[in-house]
Amino acid sequence: MDNLFEDKHIFSVCELTRDIHRILEDNFPAVWVEGEISTLRIPQSGHIYFTLKDEKAQLKCVFFKRANSNLNFKLEEGLSCILFGRVSVYDQGGQYQLYVEKIEPRGKGALQLAFEQLKNKLLKEGLFDQARKRPIPFLAKKIGIVTSATGAAIRDILQVINRRYANAHIIIRPSLVQGKTAAKDISDAIEELNDFAGVDVIIVARGGGSLEDLWPFNEEILARAVYNSKIPVISAVGHEIDYTICDFVADLRAPTPSAAAELVVREKSKLIAELTALQNRLQQVIMKKIELAQADFERVKHSYALRRPQKVVEQYQQRLDNVSLRFSNFKVVLEGIEQKIGNLDQRMATLILHKMKLKQSLLEQISSRLINLNPLAILSRGYSVTYLQQSKEAIKGSDKVRKGDIIETKLHKGVIISQVEETKS
Length: 425
Description:
- With 425 residues, the protein is of the alpha/beta class.
- It folds into 4 domains: 2-107, CATH 2.40.50.140; 140-266, Rossmann fold (3-Layer(aba) Sandwich); 303-373; 379-419, no CATH class.
- The chain has 11 helices and 13 strands.
- The strands form 3 sheets. The chain has a 5-stranded mixed β-barrel.
């Protein structure tokens, strides 16, 4: 039996796995694979483990933290994507797998997918709610601007403000507007203006560019800095067709940096014209009031009361005497009426007493007649009334009862219950 294996090479598990490892890495050092993500798992280490599958097969995948640190979007179950990496063997598990270096979503770019994912997340949290957005000051005295110190955006903003309201107080906090650290720098700038500058409004601005160029304004750290700002924020990022997450969270979105400047300051010449018009209207109203007051004064000054005040007093005194005399006459009449009412009260009381005696006599007569007519009254003179017990019907003749009937006889005092034994006509 031992001779059977003398000329054959026998692999150990480790040797065979090592050779397969070498073959796979030599033949598949860099491959693109398309499929759908399932059984996604992300432990605390930051490495990402999942299975890439299609209708007929599955492939284990690992996406180490060093490679996935630049991933812009969030991996989800069921996401169709294209993966780039190398195929090798996980020796301890004895299985081949794809070591991922890059992932692109299928059908749309990674940045676009990341934009939509973050937008939906913040929408559900209420960061875009209109109810929480604060009004922009009518005329800001101190304006904070966060943008690049050398870009076209700051030049456009300053030009518009100088033209419309040259004496506005402006505080510029220069910041990065592109690159990996730009979102953090812009967020810090917003917090600094909130804490130290005492501005009335903040403009976050940048000129146009591609989605990649504008990406710092789509990051979550900046969205939350805008949301947490105690000072109203105007987002002026890109051109009119460009929309960023910063636009949705801000209290007001301006289509361009120049438009933001126009929204935050009123044109001084127009304000002066409006104030002048209001001043003229106020003067006209005041003059009209003065004219009416003067006319009233002249009318009162030439009135009869001021020319002959003693005569007016005498007339009122005469009117008062007339009223007093009429009151005295009314008092006499009232006393006569009271006397007549007293006489009427006495006559009425006598009449009512007479009527009551007549009614009482009539009542006694009727009561006596009712007593005499009461059929039960004759019982007191020794008479009685007999009726059938069951029907309570009065018995008027012997033919109304039969032998065995129970009858009741009502006396003046009490009742006798009997049984009929015999009847006679």
